[in-house]
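W.,

You were right to be curious about this one. When I first looked at the sequence I had no strong expectations either way, so I just let the prediction run and decided to look at it fresh. Below is the sequence, 124 residues in total, followed by the output.
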Amino acid sequence: LVAPGKLLKTPFDIPEAETEIVYGPLTEYSGPKLAIFNIMENIKILAVAGLITALFLGGPTAHVIAGVQIPAVIDFLIKTVSILILITLIRSVTARLRIHQAIKFYWGFVAIIALINLGYVMVV
């Protein structure tokens, strides 16, 4: 829920909206410099997906499925690619939110889930 907001991707791309007349801080860049910025954005998405995998999905763990051992690196890559697919899916099927809608989403839905999780962690 937080990754698209942190990455400033749809629906939370309010500061750098591509469909606006001025395309945020990348307006003046073209050619190789723009390519570097685009690669940087993709690396940032990959880093966040890897971080989510490491923190919340158990990181790299070796598994044995049907007698075949799956190496930890392959397991980590599968988990990371599934997070990338989820982030891309959210980006593809949602429209951009207005500022008040994003604030309502994070202070309503996400804050309630965070408080429930905090209570659960305190009890367990």
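Here's what jumped out at me. Residues 3-98 form one domain. And, maybe more interesting for your project: The chain has one domain: 3-98.

Coffee later to discuss?

I.
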